[in-house]
What does this fold into?
Amino acid sequence: MEIIHIHHPYDTSKIPKGDVVLALGFFDGVHKGHQEVIELAKEEALKKNVKLAVMTFNHHPSVVFQKIDHKKMKYITTVDQKEKRMASLGVDILYVIEFTSSFASLSPQAFVDEYMVGLHATTVVAGFDYTYGKPDVANMTALPTYAKGRFDIIEVEKLSRCDKKVSSTNIREMMKKGDIESANDFLGYHYETNGVVVHGDKRGRTLGFPTANIKVSPLSLLPVAGVYVVKIKVADTWYKGMAQIGYNITFESNRPKTIEVNILDFNADIYGENVSVEWLYYLRGEKKFDGVEDLITQLEQDEIDTREYFKKIGD
It folds into this structure.
């Protein structure tokens, strides 16, 4: 997959020659709804014998429109993760547009002219609620007016599961509640965070439950604090484990949030390793225990519950 980063106004020589089917969206999470948009675009590209292109942004538009500190934004998928998901879906060209004030100031007609026609789209595919300016004048209903017959348009209908729209907003709400299984159902894959194993306070070793302390991107959205059944990939091998997102409140207050993974049946030194963690099931919330013995008893139960979960799913 070719990845092309674009800053507005762009150099037209950076745009590959040849027609494309262009899928549009921010695609945070690349969830089942997004996958449907990309799949329909892929089918159309095969029919027309052209490449499949996807256009997304380097950060959320609210960073510009609502003046939110970009460092405080949390994403279901970072740009790097989004790139990997897109590649796995068979995308040929991924345009990552820098969402700046100058880009945001484009009129709907200019956006269509420069970022649909200008990218050689013979067909544009987007969700029913896609907008490219103010929603009342730059929506999918208005797109044919701006297109002026220069490309075909495929509008993808809303995808729902259990009477809920499959959306990044709903996935975020599920993760806030610890409903990681429903979030994974909407995503179509296990929610994943990537990071590097760093040194922690090594308290887990003294408790009999050594943990890998994972430092993730500050832009990554984390599920609600608590204990989870997880899988962790170390050096291309997946291992079973249980993880805690939290503040270790049993020992002291005002600690920073950490992600710690106890890898089952594993005792290698992995400091400095880049790892991926898949979040499978929420076991319980974070608790403050009266003492170390109570904490160890709970960790022993957590391990039992974790192994039972894997046994139940046949893994």
The domain at 171-312 is CATH 2.40.30.30 (Elongation Factor Tu (Ef-tu); domain 3).
